[in-house]
């Protein structure tokens, strides 16, 4: 009954328009069409179903039909078509505006969530609307590919559909930010982020995914997101090849660079003498990198560098001679390896090291 009353409110004046149009043979005026569009917009804002409203328009035309003179069926159908078309246009316009407003609100929330720019209490209240409970711990996964991605892109939409189809309503937020794909999930559900990482890696044609650690509270999402971004940046600087990175596995690197000047001093002190080598320091730094990355196995390091074992051995001896530190000696290995890591983090000798 209430729905029928609401529908009748949005058909006010409709029957009179049909009767007048059929009596005169005219078309609906601009003012009448605008009125029907306005009624359609109000009906959409009231949450009424369009199908029921169209049915009410048809029923209104049937009620008018017996009151018309013979031969007025044609004008009635034409007037009905105009009225329903204008009403539906207003209804759809209102819905489109609502969708745009919802998208804008969602984007604003995501920006505030990932950058921590809003009051945390207010942010937690807004998060409920988007399916998150920020009082719990959350972790964030970030995927980047060969090209930037935005909301609505086939890749982003496909991953979202796949993840939601697998896990349903688990308080998961999938979005994009700065051309990257982002997934926020409760911290006690690492399987969600692992699955997202696999899907994103496959969908981005060999992209890379980083997963931040789980942190508590509204600020925890920001912390985890920043960890994931830091892991992606670190992977680029260090030349890490793993497709999926976990920030928890890379904590040693921020520790090493926390005192950047001390690290720069170590690099210069230990590796600085390599500048005297023919060809400069870089080939020998690359040699140490391959040697340590291969577990100090000379044959594997030589393979990675496309060198003979004899040539690799010569380079290691040259490093020993210049620096006084023997890469094969466990007593010297830690200092050399730490300096090599620092060189990669500081882009030494290509960078300034400061």
From TrEMBL:
It comes from the Bacteria. Gene3D superfamilies: PucR C-terminal helix-turn-helix domain (1.10.10.2840). Residues 284-340 form the PucR C-terminal helix-turn-helix domain. Residues 116-234 form the CdaR GGDEF-like domain. Transmembrane segments: none annotated. Belongs to the CdaR family. This is Helix-turn-helix domain-containing protein. It comes from Streptomyces caledonius.
